[in-house]
């Protein structure tokens, strides 16, 4: 995956570039809004990571102008601002996700990977499959090896989100955001308990684990 | 004189000057009008009197002849304040009357004299300066003799000069009064402003505890001072909050930062054992995540305490938020052996921020589950929603150990973790954040006893949107 980092803090940008490449991605750096816009405009990237406060042209203007030109590449906004409605402002400008500094790189990586896949074809698929686990989005049924598994509505949405991002790390805050539609940091292990409930439902009686815990990051569903 | 020039620049001085001008103009117009009117009236009266006199004299002449006329004039001319009387022959030779000398040419034109003329009476005029001014009617008797009856102008002129003097005196009084009022009122205003400026200078100089003077009269200066004082109060509170945040950051983040540093050092020391290094690094990351979390919470609390923002609020349904949070925490509660229930009497819509309310409620529920988990009997946490007396109360009640009344006010302070709870995980910011969220919503966070005096009830009290 090719990532464009528009960030004026040289050290932070260099760290991100290195960390992204260690995770198997390539990344370019733009140090100001003008350069960032020009580089993004070439259209050679899968995801833009844009800092909100940039020299020459601020991050939101860069995004607004890109969107104005019909560029639909996913954008993740990084911001040191954390006012109550900053997220809303950022998303309204055309951002797809919003992360407040300071953040953990694992969180950023998971979100960037989730974004890039979003632009893929998962939206139109009606059935998600991971190994012998199947989730039908239309009939709201889940089966494993042909056996139907009964899930609560919330558990269904949790599994749907995990399967939509199969093979990718999904963090706890991403789950809270996308499954519960809340954007705060869950204090304790609330999400973990929901996951372990779900896990017991889809894995009980089967040998092969599907839902894995990624230490220090989150969860991932994959068939191996 | 510097003070005087400062005085001249005050609004009071400018207003006084304007008023003096206006009053003077009004008074002038009034006086001119009155004097013109009275002069015309006096003139008309004089003419009437003279006309009547002439007609009487003419009648006397007709009835009694020249002798009668002369005799009557002689009588009348001697009366005090008498009119002017003069009879001459057709050549202008004086035959009778009380006029000794008259301005030449007056007798040549019949009818009213067009201009006042000079004359002098018998026995009066020894000097030319003693001449008087008068108006008169000149009539020709049938025998070609000339009869003049006139009235001295001394009286109306005296009257006019009295009016003029009165006007001058009145104007002088007015000017003096205005100047005095202007001086005292203006100086008083100037003094008040000076004291306000002086106080502001001291405040700008760094003495944030100083307040602007309030005289207690409730006038506009007082209102201004009161408002500015309220503003200073707010600034001081924000300043204090900021100072507290930095103090807390300094004191309370030092410990975890030191721990973080130690872990990193330990990881470095464990180089030979890859497994141990890995574990140490993972603990380091977990520690820094916790630090980030704490840091975000502190920032959020400060921002929330900075005040309400209408942009960040919409109509939100508290019942829906409760349902979400209870659903979110239900597995955790179950795992901890705590019964988590929602008791919603009716839905309640308020103006608020869904995210913030959910986060605050999560913190409270989280705490309630943690603290009631170990309690004797059947641990239970109930989230209830009720509307009463213009407020919506969202209450989380547990039957855990509770918080002694004396410690309750401290429980919502930043970083305060009551002694007994030191062993529990958490940043110690949960209730502080909840309180900040309530401040943001112009409501309050109320801690009280739980059911039957056991446990703790934490109420988020919102102003009812229906009453606003």
Automatic annotation (TrEMBL), chain B:
Keywords: Coiled coil, Kinase, Membrane, Phosphoprotein, Transferase, Transmembrane, Transmembrane helix, Two-component regulatory system. Residues 248-466 form the Histidine kinase domain. The keyword Metal-binding does not apply. Residues 221-248 form a coiled coil. One of its GO terms (molecular function) is kinase activity. Residues 187-240 form the HAMP domain. It is an enzyme of class 2 (transferase). SUPFAM superfamilies: ATPase domain of HSP90 chaperone/DNA topoisomerase II/histidine kinase, HAMP domain-like, Homodimeric domain of signal transducing histidine kinase. It is found in: Membrane. It catalyses: ATP + protein L-histidine = ADP + protein N-phospho-L-histidine. The chain crosses the membrane at residues 166-185. InterPro entries: HAMP_dom, HATPase_C_sf, HATPase_dom, His_kinase_dom, HisK_dim/P_dom, HisK_dim/P_sf, Sig_transdc_His_kin-like_C, TCS_sensor_his_kinase. Its EC number is 2.7.13.3. The keyword Transmembrane helix applies. PANTHER family: HISTIDINE KINASE (PTHR45436:SF8), SENSOR HISTIDINE KINASE YKOH (PTHR45436). This is histidine kinase. It comes from Chelativorans composti.
């Amino acid at each position: 995956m090719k990532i464009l980092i528009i960030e004026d803090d040289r050290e932070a940008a260099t760290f991100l570039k290195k960390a992204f490449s260690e995770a198997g991605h390539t990344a370019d750096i733009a140090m100001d809004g003008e350069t960032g816009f020009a580089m993004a405009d070439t259209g050679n990237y899968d995801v833009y990571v844009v800092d909100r406060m940039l020299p020459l042209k601020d991050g939101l203007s860069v995004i607004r102008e890109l969107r104005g030109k019909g560029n639909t590449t996913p954008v993740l906004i990084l911001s040191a601002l954390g006012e109550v409605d900053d997220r809303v402002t950022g998303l309204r400008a055309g951002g797809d996700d919003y992360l407040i500094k300071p953040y953990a790189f694992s969180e950023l990586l998971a979100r960037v990977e989730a974004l890039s896949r979003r632009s893929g074809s998962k939206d139109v698929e009606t059935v998600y499959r991971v190994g012998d686990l199947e989730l039908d989005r239309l009939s709201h049924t889940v089966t494993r090896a042909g056996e139907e598994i009964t899930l609560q509505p919330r558990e269904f949405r949790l599994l749907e989100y995990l399967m939509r991002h199969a093979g990718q790390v999904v963090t706890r805050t991403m789950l809270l955001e996308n499954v519960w539609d809340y954007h705060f940091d869950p204090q304790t292990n609330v999400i973990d308990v929901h996951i372990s409930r779900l896990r017991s439902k889809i894995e009980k009686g089967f040998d092969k684990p599907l839902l894995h815990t990624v230490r220090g990051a989150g969860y991932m569903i994959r068939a191996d | 004189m510097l003070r005087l020039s400062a005085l001249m620049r005050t609004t009071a001085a400018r207003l006084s000057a304007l008023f003096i001008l206006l009053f003077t103009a009004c008074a002038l117009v009034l006086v001119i009008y009155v004097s013109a009117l009275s002069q015309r009236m006096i003139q008309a009266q004089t003419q009437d009197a003279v006309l009547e006199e002439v007609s009487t004299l003419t009648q006397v002449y007709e009835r009694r002849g020249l002798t009668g006329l002369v005799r009557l004039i002689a009588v009348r001319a001697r009366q005090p304040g008498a009119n002017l009387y003069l009879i001459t022959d057709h050549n202008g030779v004086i035959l009778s009357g009380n006029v000794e000398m008259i301005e030449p040419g007056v007798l040549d034109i019949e009818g009213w004299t067009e201009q006042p003329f000079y004359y002098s009476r018998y026995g009066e005029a020894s000097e030319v300066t003693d001449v008087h001014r008068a108006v008169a009617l000149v009539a020709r008797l049938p025998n070609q003799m000339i009869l003049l009856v006139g009235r001295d102008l001394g009286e109306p002129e005296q009257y006019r000069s009295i009016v003029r003097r009165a006007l001058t005196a009145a104007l002088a009084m007015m000017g003096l009064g205005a100047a005095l009022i202007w001086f005292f009122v203006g100086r008083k205003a100037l003094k008040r402003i000076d004291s306000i400026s002086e106080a502001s200078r001291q405040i700008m100089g760094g003495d944030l505890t100083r307040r602007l003077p309030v005289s207690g009269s409730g006038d506009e200066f007082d209102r201004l001072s009161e408002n500015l004082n309220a503003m200073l109060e707010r600034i001081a509170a924000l300043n204090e909050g900021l100072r507290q945040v930095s103090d807390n950051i300094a004191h309370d983040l030092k410990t975890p930062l030191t721990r973080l540093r130690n872990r990193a050092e330990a990881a470095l020391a464990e180089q030979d054992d890859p497994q141990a290094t890995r574990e140490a690094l993972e603990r380091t990351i977990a520690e820094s995540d916790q630090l980030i979390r704490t840091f975000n919470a502190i920032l959020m609390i400060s921002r929330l305490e900075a005040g309400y923002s209408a942009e960040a609020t919409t109509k939100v349904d508290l019942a829906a938020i409760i349902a979400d949070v209870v659903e979110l925490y239900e597995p955790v509660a179950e795992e901890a052996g705590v019964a988590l229930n929602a008791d919603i009497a009716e839905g309640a819509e308020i103006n608020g921020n869904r995210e913030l309310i959910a986060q605050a409620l999560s913190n409270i529920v989280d705490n309630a589950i943690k603290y009631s988990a170990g309690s004797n009997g059947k641990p239970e946490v109930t989230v209830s929603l009720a509307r009463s007396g213009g407020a919506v109360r969202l209450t989380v009640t547990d039957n855990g150990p509770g918080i002694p009344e004396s410690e309750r006010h401290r429980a919502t302070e930043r970083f305060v973790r009551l002694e007994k709870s030191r062993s529990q995980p958490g940043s110690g910011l949960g209730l502080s954040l909840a309180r900040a969220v309530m401040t943001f919503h112009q409501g309050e966070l109320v801690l009280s006893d739980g059911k039957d005096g056991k446990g703790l009830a934490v109420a988020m009290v919102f102003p009812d949107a229906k009453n606003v």
